[in-house]
TrEMBL record:
One of its GO terms (molecular function) is DNA-binding transcription factor activity. PANTHER family: MULTIDRUG-EFFLUX TRANSPORTER 2 REGULATOR (PTHR30204:SF85), REDOX-CYCLING DRUG-SENSING TRANSCRIPTIONAL ACTIVATOR SOXR (PTHR30204). InterPro entries: DNA-bd_dom_put_sf, GyrI-like, MerR-type_HTH_dom, MerR_fam, Reg_factor_effector_dom_sf. Residues 7-76 form the HTH merR-type domain. Keywords: DNA-binding. This is MerR family transcriptional regulator. The keyword Iron does not apply. The keyword DNA damage does not apply.
Length: 273
């Protein structure tokens, strides 16, 4: 071989590209990236320009193209086709970036809720003025059959995922005022997730007002203990329940395997007697 061009051995080129030599050998075997030169012993040598080709291959792989598709593109491309392909893939990357940013926000919110839960005083009950909050809410599930319940919840979850409405806020459930007064704490009338005000056209709005807030720690089947504690507390401070209960799973099975460490936040609209 007579050339003034500096060539890299397969080991050097693999190091330059950050891959194993076997990757280069595979690309050569399938005709995707042929070495600049092979000697009579079969040793492969690559040019520095081929490092750029390798980078493009890796980029196209990362945005979802198969090796076969990449090979076909390289063997039939024109400048116009390259521009068209890169424009299409740029749009794909924009969508992926938005999805990753959405996932990142979910992670941040979930982490923040768990960290805040670790610092809570679970024995403390408070009454405080709350601003309106905006929810996406399911259809009524209070008196539906098991089959209807499953269908409604699945439709709700599917809708929130399709619309990218889940941003890491805790999933919640609504227990109606009449249920609370009758001691019926284990059946939700609706399930919901909190959303930004502009996320949906007609969100369900939790009214502004005074809410008693408490936290139930432990298995959900014992949540009646916390509701009874809240009722006793309201009698002591001369308040009465004037609206529904909004529950949120602050710590659940997605955060810990220990049921005794589950935490449910309870917020009930109240008024002075």
């Amino acid at each position: 071989m007579k050339t003034n061009q500096k060539l890299f051995t397969s080991g050097e080129f693999a190091f330059l590209c950050g891959v194993k030599k076997q990757t280069l050998f595979h690309y050569d075997d399938i005709g995707l990236l042929t070495p600049e030169y092979k000697n009579n012993k079969g040793y492969r040598y690559y040019s520095v320009q081929q490092a750029e080709i390798f980078s493009v291959i890796e980029m196209l792989k990362e945005i979802g193209m198969s090796l076969t598709e990449i090979k076909e593109f390289f063997h039939s491309q024109t400048l116009e086709q390259t521009i068209t392909l890169l424009t299409e893939k740029e749009k794909v990357m924009d969508q992926k970036i938005k999805k990753m940013q959405h996932t990142q926000q979910m992670i941040k919110n979930k982490k923040q809720h768990i960290k805040e839960a670790l610092d809570l005083n679970y024995d403390c009950l408070t009454i405080e003025q709350k601003a309106p909050e905006y929810y996406i809410r399911s259809e009524n599930i209070l008196d539906c059959s098991d089959k209807e319940f499953t269908k409604t919840i699945m439709q709700f979850i599917k809708y929130t995922k399709q619309k990218h409405l889940d941003t890491g806020y805790p999933i919640g459930g609504i227990i109606q005022q009449e249920q609370i007064e009758n001691g019926d704490y284990l059946k939700y009338a609706y399930t919901y997730i909190r959303v930004d005000k502009s996320a949906v056209k007609d969100p369900f709005i939790r009214e502004a007002g005074k809410y008693v807030t408490g936290y139930h720690k432990g298995r959900y089947v014992t949540i009646n203990e916390t509701y009874n504690k809240i009722k006793n507390y309201l009698n002591e401070v001369n308040y009465h329940i004037s609206g529904d209960s909004f529950e949120e799973y602050i710590i659940d099975g997605a955060s810990t395997s220990e049921e005794n460490n589950y935490v449910t936040k309870i917020m009930i609209k109240v008024e002075e007697k």
